[in-house]
Amino acid sequence: MKLLLVSANREHAPYPVFPLGLAFLATHLKQADHDLAVLDLCFEADSRAALVVALEQDQPDAVIISLRNLDNVTWPQSISYLPYLTELVAVCKGKVTVIVGGSGFSLMPVEILAACGADIGVVGEGEELLPQLLHCLARGGDPAGLPGVVLPGNTDFIPPKPVSVIGSPDRELFDVARYLKEGGMANLQTKRGCPFSCTYCTYPLLEGQQMRTRPVGEIIAEVRSLVDDHGVDYLYFVDDIFNYPASFTEQLCSALIAEGLRVNWSAFINPDFITPALLELMQQAGCDAVEFGTDSGSPAMLQSLRKSFTVEQVRSASQLCRSAGIDFAHYILFGGPGETDATVRESFRLMDDLEPTAVIAMTGIRIYPRTALYQTALTEGVIGPETDLLQPVFYLAPSVRDHLAELVIAEAMQRKNWIVPGLEVNVSDAMLEALRMFKVRGPLWKLLKRMGRSRIAPMK
């Protein structure tokens, strides 16, 4: 079949993100002898017009739209991407079969399919399912029995199965150079699945709780291709937790060192699984920055959010980074169940003690179905069974709900290393555009140490 793969993501803040999911799909679709064309809307001035042109030029039998995010997950300046998806589907509807998938779609597939009007939805990982679905459609079969396939009018579907072989992404049809130029890095995935149980997190829902790693040799070959074929000199490992399991991380870093690749990189790590030896190995392999999903500096809030580590482990891991000279950032989530003024200030005090390169703080926590936070919100009456979660709905603890924004702004403005999206502290579209002019490699937050004072953009 002739297929048009459409990456719907247009978000550039803080970086334009290469459509890695579609690149993984491209490998499996090519192996199934499908004829592929790609439309990446990230850099298109007029998405609708670009899609119309692509349909006319490529004449596909089916259009596959990948929705990376349902919204920008930012309070209070929330933006839903659902109307945009619906517009894309409308351009294609009636001309070709429209299939929608991606991590954003998989969060609420039945509801999103009904809202956007696509012909078919694919839930979860599509590398194995999508070729099966297309084969079924080509034979005129009924795809309703395929795990992970959602059809209009069906409120139930067979749960998807995790892929047995993740494979390697095929980036041939995508503009890798554009993402390197404007995003300062290339992205790479080494594993899928998350065995942890943070109350708000959707990773276990999207990828399963069983962690599956890619072969180290396959990953090294991908890095080599990025360096040699695309001129990539900085990587970001998109794994939910790069340093778990630690044994796999050690194997990968040792292989990177042995390969002698001249590339730096950063990754998201868990403070519970970092040792001086592992951090040294990571640094030797090219790591120059790490990010911690810390969420809070309050012991009570770490328990409330079901984090797998303690404040002391956060302290220890931060000290290791500082001693090694590695830039590090902590991500904080304010407003979860049990949050108070006191726990908010505990987080600020801990970050003061740790002196990270940057702190990226989000206020409010997006509520998604099937998470523990969803059940808490239901029990507390924050939402009801009828609440439309297709629109961005955030949990804000009752004790801080009415003044959390003011409290966080007041505290963050006293510290030049804090970034608060949504409240516009040390971040704005104009600021990000200005920083990119410096051709920064790696995370933009590394530049915060050069700032003289905190800034706040006008609220829109």
Q: How would you state the average pLDDT, rounded?
A: 94
The number of domains? 2
Q: What's the story with the biggest beta sheet? A: 7 strands, parallel
Distance, first to last CA: 46 Å
The CATH homologous superfamily of the largest domain: tm_1862 like domain
CATH architecture of the largest domain, by name, is: Alpha-Beta Horseshoe
Low-confidence residue ranges = none
Helix content bin: 25-40%
The CATH class designation of the largest domain is Alpha Beta
Briefly note the CATH topology name of the largest domain: pyruvate-formate lyase- activating enzyme
Q: What sort of overall outline do the alpha carbons produce when their principal axes are compared? A: globular
Question: What's the Cα radius of gyration?
Answer: 22 Å
- Side by side, the strands of the main sheet go 7-10-11-12-13-14-17
Give the structural class.
alpha/beta
Number of beta strands: 17
Beta-strand portion reads 15-25%
**Total helical elements:** 17
